[in-house]
Amino acid sequence: MSTQTQSPSITLDYVKTIGIVNNGLNGRGFANPYDTAVDGDGRIYVLNRCDPARASAIRVGICTIDEEYLGEFGRGNGAGDGQFVWVVAMALAGDGRLFITDEYNHRVTIYNTSGAYLSHWGVPGSGDGELNGPAGIAIDSSGNVIVVDQHNARIQKFSADGKLIAIWGSFGSGEGQFNLPWGVAVDQHDNVYVCDWRNDRIQKFTNDGEFLAVFGESGHGEGQFQRPTSVAIDPEGFIYVADWGNERVQVLGPDGSFQLLLRGQATASKWAEDYFASNPEEKAERDVANLHPDLPAHLNTPYHISSQTEPFFWGPVSVSLDHQGRLYVAETNRHRFQVYQKR
Amino acid sequence: MISNDTALMAHLLRRAGFGASRDELERYLEMGYDGAVEALLNPSDPGNMPDDLIRRYHVEQSELRDLAGSAAYWMYRMISTSSPMEEKIALFYHSLFATGYAKLNQARCLLNQVDMFRRSGLESFEDLLLELSKDPAMILWLDNNENHGTAVNENYGRELLELFSMGIGNYTEDDVKECARAFTGWTLGNAEYMSIRAAKDSIWPYGRIAWHFEYRDEDHDDGEKTFLGETGRFNGEEIIAIIVKQESTARFLATRLFQFFAADEVTKAGEQVINEMMATYFSSGYQVRGMLRTLFHSDHFKSEDARFTRVKAPAEMVVGAIRMAGKYQNPVLGIEKVSNTMLYMGQGLLQPPSVEGWHEGLEWINSGALVERVNFAAKELSDVKSPGVRSIINRLESSSEGGVLDPADLADGCLDLLGPIQVSDETRSVLVNYAARNGDLDLNGHQPGDEAEQRVGNMLRLVAATKEYQLA
Amino acid sequence: MTTTNREKSLIVIQLTGGNDYLNTVVPYGDGHYYDNRSTVNIPQEKVIPIDGKVGFNPSMGPIKSLWDEGKVAVINGIGYQTPNRSHFRSMDIWHTAEPDAIGREGWLGRAIRDFDPQGENVLTGINFGRGLPRSLACQGVSVASVGDLATYGLFPDVQDEELRMFTLEAFSMMYGGAAGRDPVLNFLGQTGQDALQGADILRTAPAMYSSSVEYAPDSLSQNVKSISQVFHADLGARILYTTHASFDTHSGELQTHAKLWDEVSGAVGSLMDDLKEHDREKDAAILIFSEFGRRIKDNGSGSDHGSGGVAFLIGGAVDGGMYGEYPSLAEAEQLEGDLRSNNDFRSVYTDILEDWMGLDAAPIVNGQFEKLNLFRA
């Protein structure tokens, strides 16, 4: 159900939904996913933020596009090596290292894709190389690690072995300034795109932090954003944005022009089908229910609509791309991700 | 000496709010009593903690699926709002029209109901009952989704009369039946699917789906009904219009408002105020705001007799202490542990024990609950790092002579700045004796967290532990 | 206050979240079990056999030992007529013994009131954990809720012990003064004194107890250790309650469920050893229950909310054995995909209240229920 204006030069086809709410501390399903990453073998890593009741749950789940659940890893809740409190985002390096930000522990924790803990970077603070609430994270073509240093309102770029290379940004709403920035991504040319969350815009920089462009403004219309959380750029330069506050995904052209938006069209995952198989009476009622209801006026906000419309994105917090032109949209409040294919 | 203006304003803010720090109290004093009443009764931008921040850091408060996170979400509102009356009136209806998580397993919809109380709670009682009858959480809570034209379920119809408006003894069993018939077909969207999910506590596969009202004309009994002596092909709207005309409804509502906002026990003087509130109810077209205005302006409410005549509800205890200490004004890890203390004290937000709500007054007090109450308030108010306590320390210093307080100054100063709180002579002498432990207190050159400051913290801890602090 | 030494006590371990009956007492001899539990099953060779048909979960070794000693009653197919599959509601039903209406009073709260109508011993009922389960809630009944026995009481956050004692003294004076004219302040004063007294007594319990039994470090074992300390201190505590969670195993069940039962079995085994060491085995009975069982068919990773479940009563005075039939797993016998309960939970309550605690059960459990004769005569 993508809305398209004029004639966009991009088309996204819905593929499937993967996930089910996980109510325990391990096993199949996700608990408030905050990010996804896909490796070269097509293994999908899902970063579970986890609500307080599941804070000690295993944090990174792994599955395949065919919905095979492969297991999970992590060392539980806390400040010890390999432990997490408030995980935000994840980036997979070419050498197989998985970088995970933790905005509570103020550090970046590194695992390998087999689930072995390697190390962590960062100490709390506002000095060079120090972190205060690290959020988005991305890796450029040289293997440099770009971290959104949220509460310090800046971007820090580190080499693959953790040496600080560059810092830019300050608090504010001008060019090159940030207000609680979140997601970050790089394009084919290693330009850096930052979700300037509370300024409702995306800013584009060179790899060294020189301001290039700003996309979007506050609002609910096309090309406007409410608290964008995540951004991804495909090889052709199309910009995918998780327009979180508007409960949707928008795609912009390389020049920032609006192309299309997705509101979500989730269907039952394989794991959901398993649930229905053992709960047929619930399935029977579901089959005759209207999952796209019309709502009273006082509930006519994106948030309330999403809370009542199961196929729609609800808390679409992250957009990720794989090498086959697939888009993965993780939804915190629905414990799943929807997969789209670029045609 | 504490001026009577200050004491009266503090009284008003304990009732129409959650008590007030001295800074907040002074802002209201500038408005004068009448201005303060109007400001409280006409909530403007509540200026509470913004939803986007809460959702970013607290995923559980974005989804609002589980009870603990949802209760914490409401507590954030209570502790950060600049329109405390909005939260207080919502709390009032949350106990009056008590709807609980246990049967619904739907916290999001309970919070939508609380939103409705905020939005409509001070307006016309007729409109409020209409919204209540369309509230999806209420519909499922009292089985109105099972109230069909061909098979009447009386649960909502009965409680609407007994617990939500007129009170028992003012209508007949036939009125209950006719009332229930009028609400047939008032259900929620996807009622069958949602009720099976609620009954099974199903969050599968993708979390909860929130609910909304739906009217099913084909399921409504459109026949003639006789209700409280009037006859017609009544639908729910007409039934509510008849209910709100009744004197028993006016008395019920006025009494419940009085008990919540004025005193646990209704004295003779209280009876008189209730009568005045009933008169306002009719003259204003059932406006709740008008009734409360009458209450807050009554001589009885403003008299010293009305002060400290309510046992603080756990929500008032917890929120009042936090607001006084000025804590948790930004999203913080573990906030649900803080809001859970209300549950340990006997009042879990969103989980009233039954449709009758909480039994208030002395029933809040038992030894387990008292330990929780004292420990919580004592801990929050003895935290000298908190901005509220820092402000108290600074005020004590600047109001003292040369920065030195004798034991009586320290005890009285703390009683004043946490209220003012009136205490018995016995309590005061214990407090003064306690304050004398290390002689006079010299606050000159005090540094954050030093021994001098900690002595103020210790004093505040004991004041928070008095019997009198348990009362509003 | 009165101390009622060496009276019989009930220890309750509540398994919150819906314990999976089928993987606790496993009907491994029934082909339907493996048909329905194609993924989430206990392989036959791992089950600890009881007879040729059912056996215990492999994590229940210590309970099997107690079973062999004849001290474990397994109450099969426990539940109530129209099952409710919501955690909160079903737990409320178990707590209030009231399946058809919303009850306000907990069954154990009523029992405490019957034991001690004047509220003379504030420690008649104690919960170990924060908050108060509704089973213990009853108007006018004070129940201590002990989060941590070591720090239980007033002002636990005051580190300086001298300051804490000074503050407690002041509290005692403020709450202990002569009764005045204001009934509210008088009531507060009395309650404050009760709270102080309860805390003072409870704090003495650990010092009055010594044991060679080592409890495991998990939270349940630690709570059960506190229960043992208070029980052995003979403070007149008749009902000692704790909960363990979460048994809501919708996913990854085999791993989680095994860990949970390791903990439960370990805690129960330690407690029984402790009671034996103190020659008190016949003075305590342990009830283990959950709000419901789980679906017969698994969901590929775990199991969903069901109805008929299992409860255990364990103790030196318990007449061990199987009570009631294991409900049939055959499709025709199922209740909406669940086991059909065939033992009303209020029967078990009735046994406990009448034969163990010597109370009149009917007013507490809201009716007459046939007893199962769970205790040795």
Kindly report the oligomeric state of this protein.
heterotrimer
Distance between the termini of chain A: 15 Å
Largest sheet of chain B: 2 strands, antiparallel
Question: What structural class should be given to the helix and strand makeup of chain A?
Answer: mainly beta
Q: What sequence of helices (H) and strands (E) makes up the elements of chain A?
A: EEEEEEEEEEEEEEEEEEEEEEEEHHHEEE
Biggest β-sheet strands, sense, barrel of chain A: 5 strands, antiparallel
- The rounded distance between the terminal residues' Cα atoms of chain B is 21 Å
Spatial order of the strands forming the largest sheet of chain B? 1-2
Q: Which percent range describes the beta-strand content of chain A?
A: 35-45%
Chain-averaged pLDDT of chain A = 96
Strand order of the largest sheet of chain A: 1-24-23-22-21
Strand content of chain B: under 5%
Output the radius of gyration of chain A.
Answer: 19 Å
Mean pLDDT of chain B: 96
Contiguous runs where pLDDT drops below 50 for at least 5 residues of chain A: 1-5
